[in-house]
Amino acid sequence: MAKLYFSYSTMNAGKTTLLLQASYNYRERGMRTVLFIAALDDRGGVGRIASRIGLDCEAIPFRPEDDLFEAIRTLQGEGAIACVFVDEAQFLTEEQVWQLARVADRQSIPVMTYGLRTDFRGQLFPGSQALLAIADELREVRTICHCGRKATMVVRMDAEGRILHEGAQIEVGGNDKYVSYCRRHWDDVVNGMEPGAQVD
């Protein structure tokens, strides 16, 4: 039975690299995969999934108004799909998460989604909240804080490196805007310490 998977983490854990490697493994065996990425994430170019280590692949950009179930059903009519991959899954709407669940349940195609769990304020993204609620399997992709502990939180910084406490939930960026921390150091940094300061 096909399943809906959610692999989540904080920034810079290698989610995109894992996605591209998994898709490559299917394709190497002659199986077709379909890749989606949030249209608003154009860091690698519109319709491209790009990892920090230089891997990239063409993908279908999705927008909040898109019906992913119908899009995948149309693509399935053009040839069998072995697996669907979704990068930046935190930007899915709740309805799109249900559409992907229906792809697994009714079209019998595994769906592997990758994304952030929480934003810079420590709050769940709507897409991540829905995936945490209904995905068949949850997988944590780990990265580390400067202290060596598992990083589970992220801070957003301005151009001068100051911690931002307010702003839109969605603001695409990379290492220039976001730093991952363990919960303890995220709490310290958000409450007044300098970014990257060591705490005993």
UniProtKB/TrEMBL annotation:
Transmembrane segments: none annotated. Pfam families: TK (PF00265). It catalyses: thymidine + ATP = dTMP + ADP + H(+). This is Thymidine kinase. The keyword Transferase applies. It is an enzyme of class 2 (transferase). Substrate binds at residues 170-173, 178. One of its GO terms (molecular function) is ATP binding.
